[in-house]
Amino acid sequence: MEIISQLTLNSIIAGAIYTLMALGFNLIYGVVKFFNLAHGVVAVIGGYTVFLLTGALGLNLYLSAAAGVFFAGLAGYGFDKLVFLPLRRRKTSSMVLLVASLGVFTSAQAIIAIFFTSEFRTLGAVSAGENIYSFSGGVITQTQLIILISGMLIMLGLTTVLNRTIFGKAIKAINDDAEVARIVGIDTDRITGHVFFIGSAIAGFAGILVGFDTGIQPTMGMGLLLKGVIASIIGGVGNIYGGVLGSFLLGFVENFGIWKVPGEWKEAIAFFLLILFLLVRPEGIMKR
Amino acid sequence: MSALKTENLVKHFEGVMAIEGLSISIEPGRITGIIGPNGSGKTTLINVLSGMLPIDGGCVVIGNTLRLKRIKPHRVHSYGITRTFQEVRLFEQMTVLDNILVVLTERGILSALFERHGAGHLKQAEDVLKRVGLWDKRGGLTINLSYGQRKLLEIARVLALSETGQAGIILFDEPFAGLFPQMVKIVSSIIKELKEDGRTVVLVEHNMDLIREISDHVIVMDCGNLLAEGNAKEVLERRDVIEAYLGE
Amino acid sequence: MEYLTHLAILFFIYAILGVSLNLVVGYTGLLSSAHAAFYGIGAYATAIALTSLHINFFLSLAAGIIITGIIAFLIGIVLSRFRGDYYALVSLGFNVIVYSVLLNWQGLTRGPLGMPGIPRPEFVFDFSSNISFLILSFLFVIVIYIISRFLVASSFGRVLKAIREDEQAVQVFGYNTNYYKLAIFVISAGMAAAAGSLFASYITFIDPSSFTVMESVFILAVIILGGLSNLRGSILGAFILVLLPEALRFAGFPQAIAAQMRQMVYGLCLIFLMLFRPQGLLGEYKL
């Protein structure tokens, strides 16, 4: 029975991390309509910013985390302004954008590896003396609890912004039809830039949390990204709630899946789930 | 004996009815015009008849004998049906010549693998391209053609299929849209020649003068239904047809 | 001299990988990120055949090609349901799955430990010297290139390009495009497997890390740089992208970061190509 509790907790935590990735990915996809693979590397940028600030500069943890989130957002914003926006202006196909984002991901990841080496590192000595909570036989660390709570808070915050603010309405308009949004006077380029910032900041936050939970490595971006993408597609691409549902579904299938199957097959299980959904219900759990 | 028939054909998009129980018959060897206001379902009908949209209800009958509730896109050609596209769908980053050759060459994989240099089809391609006046542009990329030239290439493509006996039923979706008078002449004479060769022509058009001039029979659609049919003169003078056009 | 021979052999292997991927991406318009998977399956199948079953190289090569072909056929059937971005994503997924299998099916592949002791080919001739292997790989390139030229210049090739331009329209004109896409996907995978066999036998030790998604990205960079839908372009792209990072090494960058430098170059290459020259150097097709 304890195993089930632990697996459930693990699933929920995994689901929360994937939710953070999916939220950002979905938000961005909604306005630009292409698979931004660079989304994976902004999570890594968040983690390494914190590493740099706490480690090399001895900065306070919370400040570093805030800075990490900010820089991740800035990076995403920068990628849009430098690479994606010029391409969008030329009305290139979404495949060109996908390849360009692949280029951004690849080179950024390599640059991080050059500066920080490919070693696996953990963030902060905080993890050592951490509190542990127990729920019906399963354990969850303080960091993991933070992951869970922040995931929910950010989702709530995001849906509030989308539904209650003018900014959110503009995003939804662009989501529906970018051309029309532009015609009615919405500055789509500027809003898209902001969306990149917010979405990437959320991903950066995810990277930092993962760093505290397990650790960081330059190559972690791809894994996080793919989970976020899979969760988004399963849940219904572009749909915020769908991304959350998809994330938790993915978390559960993965963690219960490796109960019976060796742990290294996690990624393969995730992709099998994706392909299954794409074949059987391609629009995802929640249609747009 | 009809060449092509629909029986209670139904097509809907997420609850919106585009074609509602349509039953029409296209007689062989003549030019049947299909007209109707925007949104009446004309292009949807052509898309269904050419297998590009699935049938939701009713069926399509080909040549009186073949009843189909499902038309697979790549089988359409084997039924002797071909079509042009309203929005012009050519193979943009290929040469003009290749655009014609590709509908003339072998369909099967193995035979296609062992066929080189367009094989015996270069002469046929030449004839067809010369007919529409695009032979000198044959080596250029299609993406560089003007709008009118692209419409002509679409016509050349189906002409090639007719000339080689691969297609007996040709569906034209607004072939005259946006053409200069000179090009209109070329296209309308080609369509008339197709009829002389015994082909069955379906012509979706908005240009009433052309419809009057070349169709033998006219079908009027409105809101996915058959509104009227008969010869061009009668149909175009009917009150309900005029109202359907003005009313929207 | 040894070093140059080594570079040349790598160049030839990537030339094969590039030319074969171009058939699928450049000519047929299918953005596949699964190529490294077939490269890997070919390499491992050959390695296993050579080390455990002790068959000669050319039979192992054939085994590798056939096994890869069958797997590519199955993957291709699933992939044929997808277009554009989704195709790219699902093919990436298959790459991850195959990599997972190579890494985790330790009974078969020895997992992360890799497979050492792969012998050089011994067929009439003994190919243990690098120079002789160079000639062997060159012959492979010639054969693959000739086959690809043959494919592309035939009516089959014309249909592939039409599929790339507008698959639905091609269908209306009587082509069963699913069969065509499957055929070229399998052929391309078989060629990648041949490159894998060469690689395994040359390096004599393989491990899963050579066949990750990044590797597929590298091959993609090769063909986009060289130019999609142009076979000589892929060879040129392979030449540049294999040699350029080595040139950087001479510019003084330390060996430790060589792999990351290479990766950075490839990434930047993709970005600049998309921004400034999507048709690459010799390309006849823009994404």
SSE layout:
The complex is a heterotrimer of chains A (288), B (248) and C (287).
Chain A: H1 2-32, H2 39-56, H3 61-89, H4 94-116, E1 132-135, E2 138-141, H5 142-164, H6 166-176, H7 178-183, H8 188-213, H9 220-235, H10 240-260, H11 266-280
Antiparallel strand pairs in A: 1-2
Helix pairs in contact in A: 1-5, 1-6, 1-8, 1-9, 1-10, 2-3, 2-4, 2-8, 2-9, 3-4, 3-8, 5-6, 5-8, 6-8, 9-10, 9-11, 10-11
Chain B: E1 4-13, E2 16-22, E3 25-26, E4 31-35, H1 42-49, E5 57-62, E6 66-68, E7 81-83, H2 96-104, H3 109-113, H4 122-132, H5 147-163, E8 169-173, H6 181-196, E9 200-204, H7 208-214, E10 217-222, E11 225-230, H8 232-237, H9 239-247
Parallel strand pairs in B: 4-9, 4-10, 7-8, 8-9
Antiparallel strand pairs in B: 1-2, 1-3, 1-5, 5-6, 10-11
Helix pairs in contact in B: 2-4, 2-5, 4-5, 5-6
Chain C: H1 2-27, H2 35-51, H3 57-79, H4 84-104, H5 106-109, E1 122-123, E2 125-126, H6 130-153, H7 155-172, H8 177-203, H9 213-226, H10 231-250, H11 258-276
Antiparallel strand pairs in C: 1-2
Which runs of chain A of at least 5 residues are low in confidence (pLDDT < 50)?
Answer: none
Cα Rg of chain A: 19 Å
Helix content of chain B: 25-40%
What is the count of distinct domains of chain A?
A: 1
Overall geometry of chain B comes to: globular
What structural category do the secondary elements of chain A indicate?
Answer: mainly alpha
Structural class given helices, strands, pairing of chain B? alpha/beta
**SS element count, helices of chain B:** 9
Spatial strand arrangement across the major sheet of chain A: 1-2
Q: Tell the overall outline of chain A.
A: globular
How many domains of chain B? The number is: 2
CATH class category label of the largest domain in chain B: Alpha Beta
Keywords:
heterotrimer; B: about 250 residues; alpha/beta; Rossmann fold; 6-stranded mixed beta sheet; 5-stranded antiparallel beta sheet; 9 helices; 11 strands; globular; C: about 290 residues; mainly alpha; two-stranded antiparallel sheet; about 75% helix; about 0% strand
Structural description of this entry:
With 288 residues, chain A is mainly α. Chain A has one domain (2-221). Chain A has 11 helices and 2 strands, in the order ααααββααααααα. Chain A has helices at 2-32, 39-56, 61-89, 94-116, 142-164, 166-176, 178-183, 188-213, 220-235, 240-260, 266-280; strands at residues 132-135, 138-141. The mean pLDDT of chain A is 87. With 248 residues, chain B is of the alpha/beta class. Chain B is built from 9 helices and 11 strands. In chain B, the strands form 2 sheets. In chain B, strands 7-8-9-4-10-11 form a 6-stranded mixed beta sheet, with helices on both faces. Chain B starts with a strand and ends with a helix. Chain C has one domain (2-210). Chain C has a two-stranded antiparallel sheet. The longest helix of chain C has 27 residues, at 177-203. In chain C, helix 2 crosses helix 8 and helix 9 (213-226) packs across helix 11 (258-276). With 287 residues, chain C is mostly helical. The N and C termini of chain C lie far apart (39 Å). Chain A binds chain C through residues 34-35, 83, 86-87, 92-100, 102-111, 113-114, 118, 222, 226, 229, 233, 262, 264-265, 267-268, 271-272, 274-275, 278-279, 282, and chain C through 31, 78, 81-82, 84-86, 88-90, 92-94, 96-97, 100-101, 103-104, 213-214, 217, 220-221, 224, 257, 260-261, 263-264, 266-275, 278, 287.
